[in-house]
Structures are given as C-alpha cells and as structure tokens.
Design goal:
Largest sheet: 7 strands, antiparallel
Strand content: over 45%
Protein name: Pyrrolo-quinoline quinone repeat domain-containing protein
Structural class: mainly beta
Number of strands: 41
Helix content: under 10%
Organism: Cladocopium goreaui
Pfam families: PQQ_2
Oligomer: single chain
CATH architecture of the domain at 337-433: Beta Barrel
Shape: globular
Strand order of the largest sheet: 39-4-1-2-3-41-40
Domain Pyrrolo-quinoline quinone repeat: 265-378
Amino acid sequence: MLWRMRYRLFLDQRPYDLWHWREEGRMFSSSVGPSLWNVRHALLAHEAWLFVATEELSLAVRAGDGLAIPWPSDVQTDMVLHVAKLCCVFAMSSETHDSVLCAWHCDGREIWKEQTGLKLLQPLYFIDRVNALCAGCFEGIFLWDATNGSLLRRMNTELPVDRIWHFELPTCDGHRDLLCARSSEVLGLTSQLLVWSSLEDDTVQPWQKTTNEMIMAVASDDSRLFARVGQAICAWDRAGKESWQRQEPMLPRLPTLPTRLQLSMGNVYVAAGHLILALTAETGELHFKVTTTGSVVKVYPISTSYMVSLIRSSNYSLGFLNLSQGELKVTSLRGEIPKASIAWNAFVIVAVVDANCDSDQSSLVTYDFTSGRLLWQRCFDQTLQSLCKDQHRIFAGGVGFISALDPREGSILWHTQLDGMVKALTLIAEKNGVHEFCVSEIGDLHGLTWIYMDFKELPTLQPCK
C-alpha cells in the first residue's frame, strides 16, 4: 500500500512542490523540477528538527511527525550542544584519553572535527563574545574557536579541574562572561575556586579562593557570585571581596549529596540533603528554612511563587514549596524510580519505571506546579531515558524509540522506532523559519524524482496545508 504526502522542498535554494509516495522505507515523488543526482542535503521550510544520538548512530528527527533521517556522523556522541546563532550543532565524545569535538551544519554537513588529546569533562559551553567552545579537564580550561576548531586559549590551573560554570551577565552594552572553575586535590582535601571576569583579554588573571572545604555549588546574579563551601553559603562581589557568609550546621558535609543553588526574586535558594534554605541575596538574611522528607536530588526552574524539587528517601517524591509562605507539600511517586524529568510551563513531567517490576515498561507522569495534583499519566512498553521540549510539545526518547506528546493531556502525537538507546536529545532551532535536514540520496528514476532514507519504516506523514 502506498501513502502519499506533499511538502515544499528547497534544492539549491529553489522551491519545488513535491508529491511523495512511500513504501518499504523508500519515498518516491513527482516533480516539475529537473532530474537530480547526488544531492546530499536539502532545506525544508517551517519545520523543527531534533538531533537524536543513540548507542548505534545519530539521527535528525522531524519534530512535527517523527520522520527520521540518518545523520552522517562517525562520532560517538556523549553530549550535544545546539547554537541557534551559528545554526550549528556541536558534539563531544568523552573518550578516556582523547575526547573528540565536532561541529556540523544543521543539515549534517561536517564543519570540523578535532581530536583534543584530552579527557574532557561535561558540560560543554558556547561563549558568544569570543565565539568559542569551552570545556574543562584535569589540566585546566580550554577554549576552541567555534568556526574551525582551533585552540584559542589554555588556562592552566595548579590543581586538577573537576567542574566549571559559565554565566552570561547583562551589562549596559550587552553582556559579559563570568567563568568559574573548581580545582581540587585528590579526595578534595584542598579546593580552589577560580573566577575569570574577562575571556577576551589574556592578561586578566582570575581571582581565587582556597579552602579546606569542598566547593559544592556556584551561582551568580548581576553583581555577586554565590557558592556553597562546606557548611557555609558565601557571597563575593565581582572583584572577589566577600559580601557576606552564613554558616548552616544542618547542611550535609558529604559531597555525594548534591547541592542546588537558584536565584529568584532577590533571594538565594539552597537545597542540599534534607534542607531547603531561602536567603536574601544582598545580605544573606534567612527568609525561611524547610526540612524535607528525604534528600533533594533535583530542583526545577522556579516559577514566580513555587519551587518544585525531586526528593529521594525510601521512595521518590516531588516537593512543592510555596516560596512566599515557606510551606512544603510532598507528593509520592508511589514506588517508581525517575529516569528523566523536565519542566514545561507550570507542569513538571517525570519519566519513571516501577521499582518492583522486572519488565522494561515505563511511564510519563505530569503534575501541576502549584497544587501538586497529578494531571495525566502515559505508559510505554520500553524504558524512557531522555526528555526535551519545545513551545508546544515534549519529546521522549528511550530504548529503541522516540515519541512526541502533547504536554497538556499526554496524547501521543507520533511515535518512531529507532535502533539503540537514546543518549542525547536536543531541538535544532529554526533560523529565519527554515530548517535544514540531510537525505541519503536523491536521484531520477523513469521521470520520477525519488528520495531514499535508510531506515526500516517511515512514520505516518500528515499532508502540509
């Protein structure tokens, strides 16, 4: 049986309206345009795409209907970063001794690939003002030119770097960058916080703080840098002068319990272990202190009046904290283990598996930010691994599949089978209303232009309006 669809294809910047029929993974189309051979990429107007990396291969998946097209890459992707300004996709492989950085156009054409000779640490940052990719490793911090992959700057440190943070801060003429690094000895006996206030001037040296306590987390607003150091919350001005420090004996000393720092409405919110603190950013004055039912392992972006956190105890639960009153409401996930989670508008969406079940089944559950009420639940036959979103949809990737859902009600918009487990999933944003994609081959067969995609089955495609 043949299925037919129509969409507008741009080849060599010239538009063609094509009618496509599909059967057994092959797409045929009639066109009034010329015969085409060996065209390796094309442009499709007004469609968003996802970059999907699995254990086996990388793919471009159309967000509107799940059409999957192989991404021409020989890099095992462990992290992907899309930069809309450059219309580029950057990827990093975290190899043991020689991590690879790679850059592609959004149609899959490779721009550059760099063998770094280093064991790079996630995350990977793009720094706009110097047009550079930034990553840390044990030797220090490195910047690579985003245009060609050449090494721009190497910032060596006395101790091995194990974490970096990057902040874009608004200024009267745009913004400036603040780059922070934590370097420490083995077992964290001595730690240093290094802060670079300028990445454009090589002569500007970082200011630093040395401590015998572990530096757990860092955050920044327009005028101050905040950090949790041991059992203290500290604030410094841009020159490194201490603004205030607050000791909190109830903070856990073990670095295995993560610390979350968030800034909102002039307050610093600290979540670590069983404790959530709200401090005034300017003075460090305590606004409220809340004890949770377990250890806070994740904090979602703060709405104007609520903070939502994922809490781990004997069972996992979600905590809904009223920021004006300091009241915490806890909703249990009922013995299910979260694999991924995301905030969409005033919802928190969690991918869970049953802790007492040996099958690969999993579910998406969605709760309201303000009430903690369960809004909907959707079951899957395979394990979910990754989530991402756009303005109207959420995308769920798992073992052998990717699906798009309506976050308001949980209905499945489309479902596409893939090979391998989804490891990386990100939206490739549009540029001027046009999205690029790659195809395996375009040619001419008995007067019909045909397009062939190398995958097992095409999803059902909806005709364009």
